[in-house]
């Protein structure tokens, strides 16, 4: 190893040292700038350390020998306490580090490591050939990785994190929305708080979540979970391979399930009789467990409540019980003519009570409406007590409730109780988990 072109600027009381490839040059002074070229037969590497308030690391004096293949020194470490190592690196600010061919580190505490790497934000880190950490606290790791959103992280070859506090993990992963996360090869999270997890997963709406290879969540607050699943409706959920939830507030459960237009049902006609006064006549969405030609049964359903305000599902045993009773009544009417009058009287009594039942129904709907308008907190760790009123066709109800979000904002609880003008009390509670 030959010693070549060492220059120092010396002032009393402080000591600066430069060590490279086995060579140490020492100088004492109030401030010391050290520039060093280590030469071999076919290669030159440049090592520069800046430690000065008033000047930059001094470039070596004189031309390089012919044995260096005409390699030239870099601009060096021009920032205080900066370090530049390699062919043509630049470290221009306090504490900046540039290591690698023409690497660039321009801000306080920034680090560029790799050929043509660039760290231009304060405390930014670029690691890998052609990696770029553009804004403050950005981290880019991998060949051609780019982090530019500010406090963003890009990890993987050609990954991109351009949203503020965004994270892109995986080859060609892209996170461009604020606080978005893209995890997986070619995954894409392009909206605020969007999450894309899986190869080619795409989450393109605010708060949308896409999990699974080629899954797509394009509706606001939607979730697509499963390979090739799609959730395009606002607040829709698709769960299962190829599941498709295209309607707002709707759910597609199971592989290949699709959502179809929901219909309001206010009455039903059987024979010559029309029945009405149904509860839940204003649906806002639908739940599908299959598709046309690929229907599924829903098994293990508990018996639902049967009353004027119930919106529970009814299972087969309940319908069987009703059918048995209808058969018994029909037999009795046929065989016992003298009971016809009693049946007619019973029917008359039923009609007489329709008015009361209608009022009860309307009051129940008012109660359900009031509970439905109870509020929940929007922030993690917060609790909320709320009151709400509801009305339906001259009947009113008052409801009070309590809701709470967990500290990590994943769990939420809510319950409420209401009383209507018919003095009926209804209540409800829920527990939710979001991811």
Automatic annotation (TrEMBL):
Domain Trimeric autotransporter adhesin YadA-like stalk: 298-341
All copies of domain Trimeric autotransporter adhesin YadA-like head, residue ranges: 91-116, 119-145, 147-170, 175-201, 204-226, 231-257
CDD domains, per database record: LbR_YadA-like
Single GO BP term: protein transport
Source organism superkingdom: Bacteria
Occurrences of domain Trimeric autotransporter adhesin YadA-like C-terminal membrane anchor (ranges): 376-435
Subcellular location(s) of the protein: Cell outer membrane; Cell surface
Keywords, sorted A to Z: Cell outer membrane, Membrane, Protein transport, Signal, Transmembrane, Transmembrane beta strand, Transport
InterPro entries noted in UniProt: Adhesin_Head_dom, Coiled_stalk_dom, Pilin-like, Serralysin-like_metalloprot_C, YadA_C
Leader sequence residues: 1-32
Family statement drawn from the similarity comment of this UniProt entry: Belongs to the autotransporter-2 (AT-2) (TC 1.B.40) family.
Protein name (Swiss-Prot/TrEMBL): Calcium-binding protein
């Amino acid at each position: 190893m030959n010693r070549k072109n060492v220059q120092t600027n010396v002032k009393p009381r402080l000591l600066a040292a430069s060590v490279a490839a086995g060579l140490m040059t020492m100088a004492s002074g109030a401030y010391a700038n050290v520039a060093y070229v280590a030469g071999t037969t076919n290669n030159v590497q440049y090592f520069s350390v800046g430690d000065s308030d008033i000047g930059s690391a001094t470039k070596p004096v004189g031309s390089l020998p012919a044995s260096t293949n005409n390699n030239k020194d870099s601009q060096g470490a021009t920032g205080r306490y900066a370090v530049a190592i390699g062919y043509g690196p630049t470290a221009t600010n306090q504490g900046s580090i540039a290591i690698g061919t023409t690497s660039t580190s321009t801000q306080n505490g920034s680090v560029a490591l790799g050929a043509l790497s660039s760290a231009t934000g304060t405390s930014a880190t670029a690691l890998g050939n052609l990696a770029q950490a553009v804004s403050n606290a950005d981290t880019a790791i991998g060949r051609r990785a780019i982090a530019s959103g500010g406090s963003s992280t890009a990890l993987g070859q050609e990954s991109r994190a351009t949203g503020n506090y965004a994270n892109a993990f995986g080859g060609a992963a892209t996170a461009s929305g604020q606080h978005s996360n893209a995890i997986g090869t070619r995954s894409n999270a392009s909206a605020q708080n969007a999450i894309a997890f899986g190869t080619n997963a795409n989450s393109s709406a605010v708060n949308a979540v896409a999990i699974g290879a080629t899954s797509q969540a394009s509706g606001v607050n939607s979730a697509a979970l499963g390979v090739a699943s799609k959730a395009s409706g606002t607040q829709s959920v698709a769960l299962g391979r190829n599941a498709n939830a295209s309607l707002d507030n709707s759910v597609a459960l199971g592989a290949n399930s699709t959502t179809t237009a929901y219909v309001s049902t206010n009455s039903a006609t059987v024979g010559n009789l029309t029945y009405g006064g149904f509860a839940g006549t204003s649906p806002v969405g639908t739940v599908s467990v299959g598709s046309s030609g690929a229907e599924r049964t829903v098994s293990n359903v508990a018996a639902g409540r049967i009353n004027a305000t119930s919106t529970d599902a009814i299972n087969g045993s309940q319908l069987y019980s009703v059918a048995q009773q209808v058969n018994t009544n029909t037999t009795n009417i046929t065989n016992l003519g003298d009971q016809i009058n009693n049946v007619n009287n019973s029917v008359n009594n039923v009609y007489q009570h329709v008015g009361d039942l209608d009022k009860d129904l309307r009051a129940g709907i008012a109660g359900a409406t009031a509970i439905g308008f109870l509020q929940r907190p929007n922030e993690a760790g917060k609790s909320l007590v709320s009151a709400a009123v509801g009305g339906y066709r001259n009947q009113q109800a008052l409801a009070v409730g309590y809701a709470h979000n967990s500290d990590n904002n994943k769990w939420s609880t809510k319950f409420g109780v209401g009383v209507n003008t018919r003095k009926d009390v209804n209540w409800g509670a829920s527990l939710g988990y979001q991811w």
